[in-house]
Amino acid sequence: MPRPALTEEQRKRTRGNIREAAIRLRAKQGSHQISVRDIAAEAGISVGTFYIYYENLDDLAQALWQEPVKDLRLKIESIASETENPLKRIRKVLECYARFEVEQHRVFKGAFLFVRPDTMCKPVPEQLKTEVFYRLLREAIVEGQQIGEIRDGDPGEFAQILWASIHGALAIPINLDRYRFYPSQKMAKKTIRFLLSSLAVDGIS
């Protein structure tokens, strides 16, 4: 009798278990010493099951940051769709980005704080409007300007500043930990308050 098909939740859980196993092993052994067999054993699955979900170790390495970031984009889209007021929407979107640093700390450090070596090829730059986070911020700014809640200015420029500011607020306490900056989440909270106050026509957010 054939086994019942796995649910989407079960597949997602298995993929997550494989990723977490790889992260644990990388922390203990370093990425260059890990095999598919090691990861399968750590995750409690067969090697064959590993290859159902990932083509090879390179595929898994990309998934370690791509899949959590995809989930972040979906979460941000959901939050934005549920929040009518533009300023409140901007606040919630920025807060969601900030929470990612806590919920996916390894991914945040490994992907969001990545500095490309000079020897590594640079990707072809994409238009900012293709990124969900930027697009949702820009749309909220445009709507806020239309109803007189957000001050006049280039919405695209404002969206870039918002993104750069929240990212920097999270990154600088981690990258420059020899200085006594506020912890990243406290820095993010204060930065969001300052940004919204700067955007709002009446200076109150």
Mean pLDDT: 89
Summarize the main sheet. Answer: none
From N to C, what is the helix and strand string?
Answer: HHHHHHHHH
Q: Strand tally, please?
A: 0
Oligomer: single chain
Radius of gyration: 20 Å
Range of strand content? under 5%
For the termini, the CA-CA separation is 61 Å
The share of residues in helices is: 55-70%
The gross shape turns out to be elongated
- Please work out how many helical segments DSSP would assign: 9
Briefly, what is this?
The protein has 205 residues and is mainly alpha-helical. It has helices at 8-29, 36-43, 47-53, 57-81, 86-103, 105-112, 132-146, 155-175, 184-199.
Q: Secondary-structure blueprint of this entry?
A:
Layout (H helix, E strand, L loop, with lengths): L7 H22 L6 H8 L3 H7 L3 H25 L4 H18 L1 H8 L19 H15 L8 H21 L8 H16 L6
Helix pairs in contact: 1-2, 4-5, 4-6, 5-6, 5-7, 5-8, 5-9, 7-8, 8-9
What would you say this structure looks like, in words?
The protein has 205 residues and is mainly α. The protein has 9 helices and no strands. The chain has helices spanning 8-29, 36-43, 47-53, 57-81, 86-103, 105-112, 132-146, 155-175, 184-199. Helix 5 (86-103) runs parallel beside helix 8 (155-175) and helix 5 runs antiparallel to helix 9. The longest helix has 25 residues, at 57-81. The N and C termini lie far apart (61 Å). 21% of the residues are buried. The model has no long low-confidence stretch (mean pLDDT 89).
List key phrases describing it.
elongated, about 70% helix, single chain, about 200 residues, mainly alpha
